[in-house]
Amino acid sequence: MSKFMISCLAAATFLFVSCKETKNEEKSSTTEATVVTVDHLSGTSEVHVNPKNPVVLTYGILDTFDELGIPVKGVPGSNLPKYLEKFNASEYDNVGGIKEPNAEKVNAADTELIIISGRTASMYDEFKKIAPTINLDVDAKDYMNSFKKNQRIIGQLFGKEEQVEKELKDIDARIAKIKAITENSDKKGLIVLANEGRMSSYGKGSRFGIIHDVFGVKPADENIEVATHGQVISNELIKELNPDYIFVIDRGAAIKRATLSKEEFSNALVQQTNAYKNDKIIFLNPETWYLSGGGLKSIKMMIDEVEQAVTK
Fold first, then answer.
1. This prediction's pTM
2. 24 Cβ contact partners less than 8 Å away, ≥ 6 residues apart
3. How far apart are the first and last CA of the chain?
4. Domains in the chain and their CATH numbers?
5. 25 to each of 30, 32, 46, 48, how far by Cα in Å?
6. Which of 54, 62, 152, 284 has the fewest beta carbons under 10 Å from its own?
């Protein structure tokens, strides 16, 4: 074989190998680009972009999926809020409740992403063996920043970044309108969770503290203990605090047990408050506030209720 032919073969071989390496590098880069590292409340997870068959175990994030038009496979269908009743349809896998989902049913969904909240955080290690799992609960002490972070994570994973940013901009504008009223008002509010004859109050930094921390309603009591189940409160103390607004969340109604009426709540002591006298005892939607929250739909429902309370 001539030196010329040998040189040609060598050049052709080099070109073929170079092209193959370039294609492999491009394929590797593409593969890497489809995986996102997500920092969340339970750790760090590697998640594929557009993961198939997502299982969403928190109603707040489920309503974000619904608002953004993102398909979902598995849902906690045991006690769905009315505004999410569409997920009772047979096309969705019912994987149990929001506190006790069935891991076997989650596994059967053949999912590439599981989304949990604080209610199921204890199952994180179990779920991450099934599929990448992220905890998108809202941090009550930093509500809006954690809320926005969660929405942006969903937007990034499912190619909905622009839609998410538009939603967040609209939400910020509506909150600003409420704060323009509350920050220039001396009126104070009290948040009460009614639970089948028992009552607890919640203040700043609590699970319902968005009313104070985000919407700017001044608290009737600055010293309410931040606790999972709130601070026990009596009718006598409600009278003494004399709030201008009383925001009531009826847990019994949320979990489909005994429902508390406004008449039952408004006993002789409560009737002595400014809130009662000015018709400002507001029974909030218990499903939104107790079961859900932290989603694009639910936060707008919360805004609606607080806006109506402080503007009328």
1. 0.87
2. none
3. 96
4. 33-137 (3.40.50.1980), 166-311 (3.40.50.1980)
5. 9, 10, 21, 19
6. 152
